[in-house]
Amino acid sequence: GLSHLTAGLLAQYVKGDYTGSADATSYNENSLQLTADYAVADFNTFNLRLGATQRRLSRNEDVPGADQRDDRVNGFTGAVGYTRIFSPKTSANLEVFRRIDNFVAGTDALIDTGVSAGVNWQATAKISLSARYAYTRSDFGNNGLDQNRDDRLNNGSFELNYDVLRWLRLRPYVVYRDRDSTSQDDSFSNTLVGLELRAHFGDEPNG
Fold first, then answer.
1. Arithmetic mean of pLDDT, 127-153
2. In this structure, are residues 120 and 96 in contact, taking their beta carbons and an 8 Å threshold?
């Protein structure tokens, strides 16, 4: 029923600055979104964020040779998410999103549209596993330095957390990234494999 529904209106203003590059920008962003969260029987949760965002970028006028034009990116933005708790040890989540973002040190504004999913499993009191995947399409539109550029990014990861001792955690992980771009020099594919050993004192680490 409605007792499980919470809703509101979120208005935001963000100002940011990038430095260190002739192509760096400053930006002002305004957004207005309707928000809603709905829980079903304590194990299903739906999240909704729908609205519009406007971002204006200004090129760095203090850097010789910098592109001086102003760019505006406007559009519908938001996200629809779903979280399912299968058991006290296992959960999964899914999200579809559309957002305005910056590319590499603020050189361009772009619109990201995509989907992400994740699974978490607490195998034992000491061992937990998680897997994530996201597909994102980045549309650069007609603004900025990469006009009409279109990127498609696949990003996947897997990690295991093992509490060897109360103060010692072991975390092996794998991260895979693949970007297919209409800008051929920016297409790539790589895999990162790592092993993290973390010692801590005081409160136990979270994540």
1. 85
2. no
